[in-house]
Amino acid sequence: MKKKNNKIILAAFAGIAMLGITSCDLDNKDNNNSLTPAEVKIAYESVKGDYTGLVFFNKIKENSPTIEKDSVLVSATINTDSTLIIKNLPIKTLTGQLVNKELKKAIDDLGATDLKCYIGFVRKDPVTMLVNPLPLSLNINYNGKSQIFKTGFLFNNRSSLAQVAGKDELIIQIIQAASMYLDDHLITNRASNTPLLFKLKRQ
What we know:
The chain has helices at 2-22, 37-47, 101-108; strands at residues 49-60, 67-78, 83-90, 112-124, 127-133, 136-142, 145-153, 161-166, 169-182, 185-186, 194-202. The protein is of the alpha+beta class.
């Protein structure tokens, strides 16, 4: 019961946090969309380092067509003013809505991957960055042959952000594109893109 309650609390938090980060209005005149090099340096120094925490993601509920939220541990590093690396991202966070269970298992069996993201500082108070994850291409073995699983993310999108949420706390939201491919064949029929929300604490 305690475990179930914890998951409900985490899911609720994810929804609240997601609303907060996506409400950031980058067109507001009080925001700095063109930070000076000195301001970028200060912003970077305030967020650089190693982080750990949770990533919240959507998945198909077991024995049901409905979608539910889940969360797993993840880590991240900001070690330059232009890159953020999400480390050991569990593949299952990206395949939660695949209907084909055998294909999902073949992809999930890869375990985890690092996801490189380019960042750009757009606001100094609170420190806010655009986050642009690079597309993933991963080799899998499926139906007895080697194939390539491909998935992408929205690029230069104001809903794909990282923002300081408190002392040594960072919230990141990236948006996985609705389409996923096996080699050059579409394998998903999702109606919309999918957000992944990270709540991280600097170590």
